[in-house]
Every structure is written in C-alpha cells, then in structure tokens.
Amino acid sequence: MAFKIIASQCTQCGACEYECPSDAITFKGEKYVVDPKKCTECRGEFDTQQCASVCPVPKTCVPA
After folding, report:
1. Nearest alpha-carbon partner for 55 in 18, 28, 24, 27
2. CATH number for the domain including 19?
3. Domain that holds residue 23
4. Which keywords appear in this protein's UniProt record, sorted alphabetically (predicted)?
5. What is the pLDDT of residue 64?
6. Bridge partner list, 63
7. Which class for 24: exposed (0-12), middle (13-18), buried (19 or more C-beta within 10 A)?
8. Which of 9, 14, 53, 64 has a beta carbon 3.0–4.6 Å from 4's, enabling a disulfide?
9. What pLDDT is stored for residue 1 in this prediction?
10. 14-58, pLDDT tens digit by residue?
C-alpha cells in the first residue's frame, strides 16, 4: 500500500516532498501527489511515515 495526500487539506508547504526517503512525492499541476509505485511507507527506514510526521495539517498524508 502507499500513502496519498488529501489535496483539499494540503497547504502546499512542500515539507513532505523533501522528507520522503523514496522520492515518491512531487508537485504536479497545482498539488502534491504520491507515486504509489515509489512509496514504501518508509518501511525499513523509519518507524513512522515521514510525510505524515512533517505535515503541518493532521491527517493530510494518509494510507491510500
């Protein structure tokens, strides 16, 4: 499974893009998106998902 970003809640701060260890988050059009083929949910690298831990808006980076 991968994570997704709830576009309507996203402030477009970009914190998640820079913290993603698998380089799965990019800015496309007018929103940030997670590439499900690249997203590893930070398994094996961190105890928590980095996108969700740095996001200033709770429950914006969530499991898809």
Report:
1. 18
2. 3.30.70.20
3. 3-63
4. 4Fe-4S, Electron transport, Iron, Iron-sulfur, Metal-binding, Nitrogen fixation, Plasmid, Transport
5. 92
6. 3
7. buried
8. 64
9. 81
10. 999 999 999 999 999 999 999 999 999 999 999 999 999 999 999
Amino acid at 21: P
53 sits in which H/E element: helix 50-54
User: Which tokens in the block code for residue 43?
Assistant: 């398994």
How far apart CA 16 and CA 61 sit, in angstroms, is: 9
Residue pointed to by tokens 């820079």: 18
Q: How confident is the model at residue 2 (pLDDT cuts 50, 70, 90)?
A: very high
Residue 28: how many CB atoms within 10 A of its CB? 9
19: DSSP letter: H
What's the domain count of the chain? Answer: 1
CA distance 45 to 10: 25
